[in-house]
Each structure stands twice: as C-alpha cells, then as structure tokens.
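May I ask for a single protein's sequence together with how it folds?
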Amino acid sequence: MIRDKSSIYFQCREEARILKKETDKKEFLTFMSERSYNNNQPSPIPSSSPTSTSPFPNIFFNKSSNNNNNNNYNFKPSSSSSSSFIPSRPREKLVNKPYCFNCGKEFGIFTSKISCDLCNINFCVTCIKKISSKDITGVLREGQVKNYCPKCVFIVTKEETNRKFSFYCEKSLQDPIYLVFNEITLVRKSITGCLPNFEYLAESVTNFNNASAKNRETFLQVYNEVITLQNDLSVLFKDFDKHLKLISICPATTQKQDKIKSNMKSTYVSFLQQNLPKFKTIQNQLLHLEMNTCTNTYIYLSRISLDNRLNREFWQKYGNAFQETMGIVKQDLFNATIKCGENWEKHKSLIDDLIVSEERSHLNLLVPPNKEIESTLLRKNIEFLSKVLDQINVRVKPDELKNSKISIQQLRDNLSIVHKQGLVF
C-alpha cells in the first residue's frame, strides 16, 4: 500500500499560511507606527536637545547652527545607534498638506480634502475610496464605512483576501466532492501499487513452463502472497466502485461542480476499464489453476494408458491399477470443474478431443509398445509418473488434489517394487 502524504501537504500549507499572516501583520504594524510617528512630530526638524522625551531616538541634536538657512545638516550618530541607518535629512511631515498627496491638486472651494482613516493623510474626493463592511467584512464592523487612500486600500484588501482564502479553504475541505475525491484517490494509488506485483507473481504461478520440482517451497510462498494480493485487490476494487457511485450522488450547486463531477467520473471509469479486466483474467487463471492441473494430469495418464494397452501382457497385469488411478483423477477433475463453475460435459468433450489428437508416444519408446519388454515399460512408466507427480506438487497447494496425488504415488511405488524385483537375478 502506498502511503498517503496529503495530510503532510495540508499541514505544511497551513504552517506557511500562518507564517505569511504573521509577516503581513508585522508589516502592517510597522506601517502604522511610521504613520503615527509622522503625525506626532511637531515640526519637520526635531528638537536639538539630546534629552528629548520622544520614544524614538533623536538623531538631529548635533545640527550645526551656522547652516540653518540652507538646510544643510551635519549628523553625528550616537554610540548606541552607530550600526543603524541614518537618513540624510529629516522626514517630511505628510499630514495637513495643502494639496492632494496622490494627484497633487490643491485644496480649495471646488476641491475638498478628505483624510484617510488609516494614515490620516489628506486626499481629494477623486483619489479617496469609500469602503464598507460589505467589501471587507474581516476588517470593518457591520454597517461601518471608512475612507482609504489607494495605498491603504491595498493593505486592508490584502488582509481581507487572506481571510477569504482561509475561509474558503476550510469550507472546501468539507465539500462532499472533495471528500470523495480524497478517498477515491487513495484507493486508486493503492490499486496502482499492488496490481503490477500481483501480475508478476501470478505469472510465475500460472505459467506451467516455469514449474519445477526444485522450486516447490518457493511456489507455496509465492502462491500465498498472490492469494493475499488477490484478496486485497478485490476489496480495493469494491471500494473504488463504491466511491465512483458516490460521485454521481454528490450534490452539485454550480455549473463548475457539474463539470468537475463529469471529469472525475470519466477519468475513473477509464481507469477501471483499463485495470479491472486484467485483474479478472488473472483471478480466473488462479481460480482454474487446480482444474487445469488436474486436466493435464488426466490427459497424460490417458495417453500413457493408450500406449500401455498396446502391450497385452503388460496391460493384463497393471491395467486395473491404471484404471483405478485414472478414475480417482477423473473424480478430482469433476470436483474442480464444478468448483470453478464450468460445464462438465463441455469440458469432458474438450479433454477427449485433446487425448485422441496426439499421436506420439509420451513414454519415449524407441519401438512400438507391443514389441517392448516389460522391464522397459515399467521403467518408462515410473519415470513418467514421477514427473507428473512433481508437476502436481508444484502447481497446486498441499491440500488440493490429495486423492490424485496419493493414487499416483501408490501406482508409482507398486511399479517400482515390481521393477526392482525383476532386476534381481
């Protein structure tokens, strides 16, 4: 399962938003302190006395008296503020100017002055802007109207924008479409992460060419892992289908939400169409693994029985044992076919066609079976039964096809005993 990191993303975004809000607040407070400093100054040039009671440091106390007329000042910083920035001239007082600070129009009979409620600087009617509580609900009280200059409008609207952004972010987190989107995205990531592993491991189990007696223990481990992945993917696909149906049920109040719903539905339906058939095919192969193994075993036993029938003496001695073994394998094949939900009659007719379609001998005899000696037939049958038994043990679990494995093993052991007795002189 892929780890979901959306919570970490929202946490980092919330921390960044809080940090940005604190920074904006500091900038706003700095701006207000500078404006109040300009309003509280008695004159453009501060007092020359170094013992002033102002809360701000007086850096103009070393002003030369000989240069008062041409406004050239010599400043000497104090030791406490030697590292701070020293302006070349005193700040100009911005309030109570006889002209508009924005457009420069002089105030008179036809041009009235209006003071900004934030910076207290005078502006004309055209440059000032009235803002009500409907425009900035987070700054003004209900029904309150304030006059702001262009720069102060930017400050108060910025705070309102941040407040609205935070409000709509919190509101969007509770949107049903967003909640369904989060859930179905997690399920989709889990399916995307599990399905390739399931395909790879299932291929090593269902491919009979890779089966070998050497990897018998590995087969059991891989088979158990494949079954675990199959169960997990079954649950995930069910959850995915459930959330896909919830998308259609979610209410959409705007046209934009309808468009989002249609895009989500088309995207997830195409994802389901691409991946669900793969999973169903592999699941069907795993379900038919026992039936396919038993089918191959029955076909091989039937073909070697046809070879053995050509030698009458051999078949008179061991024919009953072969028929009993084939009957047990056929019964297991019938049970496995019914378990998979297949039609037994159709499957049986298909097996009969496969048995008679092959003409070559599976015992690898150099001469026809009716001309072969008994000892050679015994040895060839023992070798072939050992291979069949190894293939059964590799392809199915220990609790499957028990009767067939026991019957084939007994037949092989009986033929081995007779073969060893014939080798004793």
Notes: The longest helix spans residues 6-40. The radius of gyration is 46 Å. DSSP finds ten helices and four strands in the chain. Confidence is low (pLDDT under 50) at residues 43-89.
